[in-house]
Request: fold
Amino acid sequence: MAFVSTSPDPRGARRRRVALIALTLAAATALTGWVAYHWAETGARAELALNGDQRLGLYASSIRNAVGRYDYLPVLVARDHEVLGLLETPTDARRDAVNRRLEQANLSAGSAALYVVDAKGVALAASNWADPAQSFVGQTYDFRPYFRQAVEEGAGRYFGIGVTTGLPGYFLSQAIRLDGRLIGVAVVKIDLEPLQRDWAAGGERVLVTDGHGIVFLSSHPDWKYRALRPLPGPVREGLARTRQYDRTELAALGLQDGPEVESGARLVSLPDDPSEGDPDTRPVRRRSFLMQERPLPEFGWTIRFLSDPEPVRARATGAAILAAMGVLLAAAFLALGHQRRQTLRVQREARVTLERRVEERTAELVAANRVLREAQEELVQAGKLAALGQMSAALAHEINQPLAAIRTFVASTRLLAERGETGLVRDNLAMIGDLAERMAMLSGHLKDFARKGPARVEAVPVARAMDRALALLAPRLREDGIDVIQAIPAGARVRGDAVRLEQVFVNLLRNAADAMDGVADRRLDLAARPVAEGWEIRIRDSGTGIAEAHRSRLFDPFFTTKEVGQGLGLGLSLSYGIVRDFGGTLRAENNPDGGACFILLLPDAEEI
Reply:
């Protein structure tokens, strides 16, 4: 008789338990990420909306200020006695006088134009009378809304493109009356283009629309003179009669509304390029924005501010990821805790053996840590001593030449003082002070050989740096009878640090002078020329050249071919490191006719 086992399968139960834990963990992670995403999105969007509301207030104030500064002008013109005389009895003499008066007033106020029309809408005088191509004088403007508003209501406000100049502007008008009867209208035209340029310079997305939803001010030129939505036929006919947007098509901008998300703010989308056909009939690439708007009732306009919602999504996504990671880390800690409890249970089962092994391992670790700590302390101390040795050696090497020059200048200054040549004495003292300051700065720069430090980036004139290096080495060059031929353009300017570049030149010039010991014809050729990578500077000597065996080690620290006591071998290595910090290169080669040439390639200062 066969028996079937009914005992539970421990492996299957374990797999089911693991699957349940994984499913629970995944659900908890997803839920936490979703909550964190929406919480962060709400907060970030509220901050974005608050910033947009503040920007709207700022831009609304700038529009009101730009227009308000000219409110007085039409009223002032309407009361001018010469203007009243011209409108009452037009004569050429009066017209000429009023033209010049308006021209001066317009110039003082900074408005775009200032003009006067009679009761029939014909311009009798204007500030631009002297420009035959764009003068308003003689033009008829009775069809313009600002004229009709002034006739019917006493004053008018209107934005439109000038039918004479073709330039947009905001018009303020004021009726001119004499003894209760209308005799004309005074008009000032205000240029609002500077506002748009300021918005564009700020990199923000701002647009202003009229009552028909037509964009006439915008930080993006592609959005101007486009309707947020297609215009009905009667609206287009009315605009054609008033010629408000003369010679513009008023194509649809392609704005698509989305849901309202925060305190009146709404998600919208716009085509990346509104000129790509009709955005309402042709699929184009679109971009989402958070749009906020504020009415300007005194103008009949609406100002809108568009914010990029991508930072909101990025912040919400980051919060969701962090929250999910937190859940996973908490789960990991729980798993580690569970594992630890399992480990402790196993440890309790083999307490004696395990405790002995732990004690032995602990003792070994303590001993190893003590040895490691002592070794680390010795390494740190050795590193400090090595760095101190390098800095001391480099300081002695680099300050030797300035000290020699100072001694020479001191001796020369004594002779000049005895002769009473105070001007030359002052020059020598200034040079001595400069050399002393240079030595102080060099002592700070020399530690770059052992440890890279920040360098000041500036435009360095190559010729001036070379002249200062030659001045340091002038006694040596004269004593050795070395002729210096310099052909460095005055306009050669490289990116680097002046003091450190002079230090490189001193090292290379001194190295070249050493290489010409025992040579009959001693000559230094110094030249610079522009190349694609910047400026190529060549320091060429007529010495014995570079031995092939030494070329691979030429820029190694402490490598020298001089006798003991003649040098530490740091000059070329230090120069190589400085040039590399400038973003340049330094190499050496032998001249075909003898001697060596060191070639520096440094970036042009225009790249700063």
Summary: The two ends are 95 Å apart (CA to CA).
